[in-house]
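Q: Please design a sequence for this.
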């Protein structure tokens, strides 16, 4: 149902599975490195303390894939990009089949911030959601206060003619609080109109 691999101009997105991704490489991204705390500041989970946690994360990615509930990918810069071939982050597309919609997610290593990778991977995932899966709406969201995500999301939502839906108060349960979340959407019609231009 989901593509195993997606190529963009600068990025390669590869399905997260035990066959395709080295758990130790993925653990590097998700564990306690110098920048990990800042990377996870506005995320709905915590850094992985053990390789077993990362192994279980890959198990969950395989389950979501097999059950058609989500596609998780590692993001790698292609040849010519600084950091060629390393895991720069992860992204996902999570359909809600009853609502004909899908949610997006991304976590990037801090050294890859500011390169426009979030918007570039969205171009590919919107194509999957609308052209391949036949969905009607794609949702992007960020926790209140996450200015970097707000700027990145605003750019691609505006590019596709989408809209800001509003602030969902007490929406996302975290380990020690419930976060407010800003929600944005892009519809199939908006997407098709934007790619015609």
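A: Design:
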């Amino acid at each position: 149902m989901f593509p195993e691999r997606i190529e963009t101009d600068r990025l390669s997105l590869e399905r997260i599975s035990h066959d395709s991704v080295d758990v130790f490489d993925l653990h590097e991204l998700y564990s306690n490195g110098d920048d990990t705390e800042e990377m996870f500041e506005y995320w709905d989970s915590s850094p992985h303390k053990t390789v077993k946690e990362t192994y279980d994360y890959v198990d969950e990615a395989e389950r979501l894939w097999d059950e058609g509930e989500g596609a998780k990918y590692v993001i790698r810069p292609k040849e010519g990009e600084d950091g060629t071939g390393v895991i720069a982050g992860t992204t996902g597309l999570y359909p809600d089949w009853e609502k004909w919609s899908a949610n997006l997610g991304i976590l990037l290593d801090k050294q890859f911030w500011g390169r426009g990778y979030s918007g570039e991977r969205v171009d590919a995932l919107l194509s999957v959601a609308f052209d391949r899966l036949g969905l009607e709406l794609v949702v992007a969201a960020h926790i209140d206060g996450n200015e970097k995500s707000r700027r990145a999301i605003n750019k691609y939502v505006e590019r596709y003619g989408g809209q800001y839906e509003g602030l969902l108060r007490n929406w996302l349960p975290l380990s020690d609080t419930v976060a407010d979340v800003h929600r944005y959407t892009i519809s199939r019609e908006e997407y098709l109109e934007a790619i015609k231009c």
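Q: Thanks. Anything notable?
A: The helical segments are 23-30, 36-39, 51-66, 117-132, 147-159, 188-196. The radius of gyration is 16 Å.
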